Amino acid sequence: MNKIDIFKEAAFKENSVWRQVLGICSALAVTNFMMNSLVMGLGVMFALALSGFTISLIRNHTPRSVRMMVQTLIIASWVIMVDLFLKAFIPEVSKQLGPYVGLIITNCILMGRAEAFAAKNTPVDSIIDGLGAGFGYTFVLLLISFFREIFGFGSVFGITFLGDWWPRWSIMVMAPSAFFMLAILFWYIHQKYYLQVKK
Amino acid sequence: MKHEKTPFKESRLYPIVFMMIITIIFVGILAVFYHSSKGRVQQYQDNAIKKAILLVFSLPIDHIEKDYELYIRESEVNKMKYYQAVKDSVVIGNAFIIQGKGLWGGITGLIAYTPDYQNILRFSIINQNETPGLGARITEKWFTDQFNSKKIIQNNQISDFMMVAENKEDLSETEVKQVTGATASSKAVLDMITKESQRIIQQIKGEL
Fold first, then answer.
1. Is the four-CA dihedral B174, B177, B179, B181 of positive or negative sign?
2. Which of A137, A103, A134 is nearest to A21 (CA)?
3. φ, ψ for residue B151, nearest 5 deg
């Protein structure tokens, strides 16, 4: 499979959120602001690419019986490094994301891609797959947070678009709206792309 | 019968050795990374506190380290640390770090009183874990600025602040506007200010 196809498949066709239903917890939690979603998405993308690369690099030497332990160790190490990097060099962003960065470790997309792709493919392909899956995840997060932020705060990336006349829907900022938005997105995409193909 | 030696990669020992080596490598890399960034992280955290302390006394923050040295004296009373601001040999006030319980987790604030502990000079929030966009709005300037110059002692007692709607006008001395949709977080801030002020002023003055 060529590199562009690997990226496209990981990002859209086999999108981790709407196709594999992975990474839902963070997709619900951080999507009330677009900025939070973007930084979280980039963090996941970076962690996915690097952990995919490392796991793939040692895949021929990793014993099957301990492979998941090895994968968790590698993912955790990369995420802690991302967390430390943010704390030391971009402290404002780190403060805003709070515990979310550390929680990337438990993001199922990382284990999912490690098992499904990195453990069987070359290091370079694994980086591309990681970037693709991370891009797809970021795309979903931004899509949901766009609607939540514009209806909840009247703004996009913190810049106000809807003035004071807009009655801010506080439900859009709270947890329930994340469930509604995610469900609407799933329904729409499955109706439009996947169910059509079946017919 | 001749015993064939199994290759090491297929032996039972291999996964254990492999896991040990990989753990040592990654933990080693992390330890190095942690130690090399530790100083920077610590310095940033110290600076953030110093900046908040300068701001709570409305002092300049152009050169945080220098201004802090110039204006702030760190002291202790009854094992309680506080920060005293002195400008042109006149004590502006005393600031304390205070803590309370928010909706999801702890709230840490900074409160400065006048030297006679009759009024609040200014109040700010250093750390909170409230809902982003709702409860987290307690850090907004309009909310924390409401406490500027408010009387903290009235009739020999700690003032009892009351929450009113965000759009109410003509507030009385004890009324504070709450953040709409975040009653619990707003109340947590008021509780933190009254409870901690009670504790601090009692310790300083010995009675109340």
1. positive
2. A137
3. -70, 130
Pairwise CA distance, residues A33 & A155, whole Å: 9
Domain residue ranges of chain B, discontinuous segments joined by +: 74-205
Regarding an ipTM greater than 0.90, the answer is no
The pairing of strands A159-160 and A155-156 is: antiparallel
Tokens 């009351």 identify what position? B162
Question: Which is more confident, A68 or A1?
Answer: A68
Which contacts (CB < 8 Å, 24+ apart) does range B145-149 have? B146/B171, B146/B176, B146/B177, B147/B111, B147/B120, B147/B122, B147/B123, B147/B176, B147/B193, B148/B120, B148/B121, B148/B122, B148/B123, B149/B119, B149/B120, B149/B121
Task: For residue B180, give the chain A residue with the closest CA.
Answer: A170
Compute the distance between CA of residue B42 and CA of residue A136 in angstroms, rounded to an integer: 35
For residue A58, list chain B residues with Cβ-Cβ distance below 8 A: 22
A41-79 pLDDT, tens digit each: 888 999 999 999 999 999 999 998 899 999 999 999 999
Q: What is the pLDDT of residues A148-199, one digit of tens each?
A: 999 888 888 888 888 778 887 878 887 888 899 999 999 998 888 877 655 5
Residues on chain A touching B133 (C-beta within 8 angstroms):
32-33, 152-153, 173
Classified as helix, coil or strand, A157 is: coil
Q: Which residues of B touch A (CB under 8 A)?
A: 9, 14-15, 18-19, 22-23, 26-27, 29-30, 33-34, 37, 40-41, 44, 48, 129, 131-134, 180-181
Task: Verify whether the Cβ–Cβ distance B15 to A87 is below 8 Å.
Answer: no
Asked whether the beta carbons of B48 and B65 are under 8 A apart, the reply is no
Global pTM value: 0.74
**Each residue's pLDDT tens digit, B95-130:** 999 999 998 889 999 999 999 889 999 999 998 888
Terminal-to-terminal C-alpha distance of chain A: 26
Is a pLDDT exceeding 90 seen at residue B2? no
